[in-house]
Write a structure and sequence with these properties.
The complex is a heterodimer of chains A (420) and B (164).
Chain A lengths: L4 H10 L9 E5 L2 E5 L2 H11 L11 E4 L9 H16 L4 E2 L8 H7 L8 E4 L13 E4 L2 H10 L1 E5 L3 E7 L8 H12 L8 E5 L1 H5 L2 H9 L8 E3 L4 H7 L20 E6 L6 E3 L7 E3 H4 L6 E4 L1 H4 L2 H11 L9 E4 L4 H10 L1 H7 L3 E2 L20 E4 L15 E4 L2 H10 L10
Parallel strand pairs in A: 2-3, 2-5, 3-4, 5-6, 8-9, 8-11, 9-10, 14-15, 14-17, 15-16, 17-18
Antiparallel strand pairs in A: 1-7, 12-13
Helix pairs in contact in A: 2-3, 2-5, 6-8, 12-14, 12-15
Chain B lengths: L1 E8 L6 H4 L10 H6 L18 E4 L11 H8 L4 E4 L4 H9 L4 E3 L3 H4 L5 E5 L4 E4 L4 E4 L5 H9 L2 H9 L2
Parallel strand pairs in B: 1-2, 2-3, 3-4
Antiparallel strand pairs in B: 1-5, 5-6, 6-7
Classes of the chains: A alpha/beta (420), B alpha/beta (164).
């Protein structure tokens, strides 16, 4: 029996010739990621049990990106926990403010994650790295703590759902629309505890950044990981980035998939997910005219350079509607610098948007751009749960950077091609 | 391990943002997190809970963020055991790691009414609605998971094993 790409990566890290769905295996890890929320809790837990020695310091990556630049004294203390730990354990991949970006944009950019890797991260969107052909999954702080100590963890081999994308992309349609449409189709528990393997000609046509956007949201369908076979585009994306080369795996022709779906992307319009679920995806036409107060472009889903370029293309020479607050956060310092050099930030400021530092703060309602009672935000992020970005009675609609930028100008949700 | 208490009922897709909002993640203080647990559904929800009560929910309970603050908040609020039709994958592990039992039961949401008293046996795989009205069976958790739960979580379990 053949194996899927996910099974091959798991088998290689378990030291086994073969694994199958439902096997419980012990696996060695390549990268162990924590942020200021998850890793500070993990470090505190380790202190409670007498600070066992950290065996995997060289695999640990610490990214204080959630409440940074620090929101208040409590969050400053969380970051101090990380900073002290990083110094004590000589963790070279600790990123200080000014160098820190949103973890899931930062790690691929810095070449810290490569094809064939097995990665756990104390953040549910760790699944982003599956776009590079790695097996990457989110864990909580206790699992993170144990992984930091041992350099390994246990996993249950997930079943795989394969989704194949065919057809020609419409104008203003991209990876974000594919994934919102997909979650709308299979549901927020459609891949619960399973792997989603994304494939098909329309995927191979997407650039790597759009693929990262798709894999990022696999968890919103309940998946343990989302994965794509690495191709030549991934190879060229990785060139000159990291020290490690990685291993390219692919699913066998006779691998077993629990379910298979086909999606014709030529039928997909720009998508909007209505509150309070990423599974409430509708074509933008059905959300057209919905009034909004704030627009956010950024996050681990859509804060990369290609996202900002699309937003700038629409915002150039235009101004946001008078009642709209437009917030834009380049996801990493490098993206920030490139946006500056390309003149994108000038376009945003002239459109009367505000540039925020690279941070997760807006997306999870931590700090920056918090919504008041009844307020509505159109956001390029990944979650629109009740109260996600502020008051329990505020609302978040999810969409692409193109729809977000166009809607900021119009002052209500609109298809980008209808913007005068 | 046997749990007896009243049940509190919630619906499908209760996400970890609802269980504990992102704005409270600068704290790991259990009683602070308990105070704000599920407040987006009902302000002061945790005040209604008596220690040992059980929580029943529909499908995909604990979906979303990997924040371990979510099971920590529920446990600190006094919830002794979670019963749902299905659980978010990361939440499921987090709850066990903190010593909070998670039981999958098909059609769970329709089997209980809020306020009913129940008795749940982790090893026996039985849930009884008291007084002895009806019994439901579930697949008992794996032996290693039961050991972790008895120790009070993964880190205490590892600590105990290391000292043997």
């Amino acid at each position: 029996m053949g194996m899927t790409i996910s099974q091959k990566i798991l088998a290689a890290h378990a030291g086994l010739p073969e694994v199958k769905a439902h096997d419980i295996i012990s696996v060695k890890l390549d990268v162990i990621l924590g942020n200021d929320i998850s890793a500070s809790m993990a470090i505190e837990e380790l202190e409670k049990v007498g600070r066992p020695p950290i065996k995997a310091a060289e695999k640990i990556v610490l990214v204080p990106d959630h409440f940074t630049p620090n929101k208040d004294v409590d969050t400053a203390e969380q970051c101090r926990v990380l900073r002290r730990f990083a110094a004590k354990e000589k963790i070279k991949n600790y990123f200080e403010v000014g160098r820190v970006g949103i973890e899931h944009a930062l790690l691929p950019e810095a070449g810290l994650v490569v094809p064939g890797d097995l990665i756990v991260g104390g953040d549910s969107h760790t699944c982003t790295y599956g776009a590079l052909g790695s097996f990457a999954t989110g864990v909580g702080s206790t699992d993170l703590a144990a992984a930091m100590v041992l350099g390994e963890t246990w996993m249950r081999v997930p079943e795989t759902i394969r989704i194949s994308y065919q057809g020609t992309l419409g104008e203003w349609v991209g990876g974000k629309d594919f994934i919102l449409h997909t979650i709308g189709k299979i549901g927020t528990d459609g891949a619960l505890g399973k792997t989603i393997e994304f494939c098909g000609p329309a995927i191979w046509e997407l650039d790597v950044e759009s693929r990262l956007t798709m894999a990022n949201m696999a968890v919103e369908a309940g998946a343990v990981n989302g994965i794509m076979e690495p191709d030549l585009q991934v190879q060229s994306f990785l060139e000159g980035r990291g020290q490690r080369k990685g291993v390219n795996w692919a699913s066998d022709p006779d691998a077993r998939f629990e379910q298979e779906f086909n999606i014709d992307v030529s039928q997909i319009s720009p998508q909007v997910a209505l509150p309070y679920s990423p599974g409430n995806a509708v074509p933008v036409q059905e959300a057209s005219g919905i009034q909004i107060d704030q627009v956010f472009i950024g996050s681990c889903t859509n804060g990369r350079l290609s996202d900002l370029r699309i937003a700038a293309k629409i915002l150039k020479g235009r101004k946001v509607a008078p009642h709209i607050r437009l917030l834009i956060s380049p996801a990493t310092p490098k993206i920030y610098r490139q946006s500056l050099e390309e003149g994108l930030l000038k376009i945003f400021v002239e459109a009367e948007g505000v540039i925020l530092p690279p941070s997760c703060g807006v997306c999870f309602g931590g700090h920056l751009g918090i919504l008041g009672k009844g307020e509505v935000c159109l956001s390029t992020t990944n979650r629109n749960f009740k109260g996600r970005m502020g008051h329990p009675d505020s609302k978040v609609y999810l969409t692409s950077p193109a729809v977000a930028a166009a809607s900021a100008v119009r002052g209500a949700i609109i298809h980008p091609s209808l913007l005068a | 391990m046997i749990f007896r208490g009243r049940v509190w009922c919630l619906g499908d897709n209760i996400d970890t943002d609802i269980i504990i909002s992102g704005k409270y993640l600068s704290s790991t203080n259990p009683s602070f997190l308990a105070e704000h647990c599920l407040e987006a559904i009902e302000e002061g929800w945790s005040k209604k809970v008596s220690p040992g009560d059980l929580l029943v929910a529909g499908k995909n309970f604990g979906c979303g963020s990997s924040r371990e603050h979510a099971p920590l908040a529920l446990k600190a609020a006094g919830i002794s055991c979670l019963i749902a039709e299905s659980f978010g994958a990361i939440f499921f592990r987090n709850a066990i790691n903190l010593g909070l039992p998670v039981i999958e039961l098909k059609g769970a949401r329709k089997k209980f009414k809020e306020g009913q008293r129940v008795e749940l046996g982790l090893e026996s795989g039985k849930i009884r609605i008291l007084p002895a009205e009806k019994t439901y069976r579930f697949t008992p958790l794996a032996p290693i998971v039961l050991k972790i739960l008895k120790a009070g979580g993964l880190l205490p379990y590892i600590g105990k094993s290391a000292h043997k």
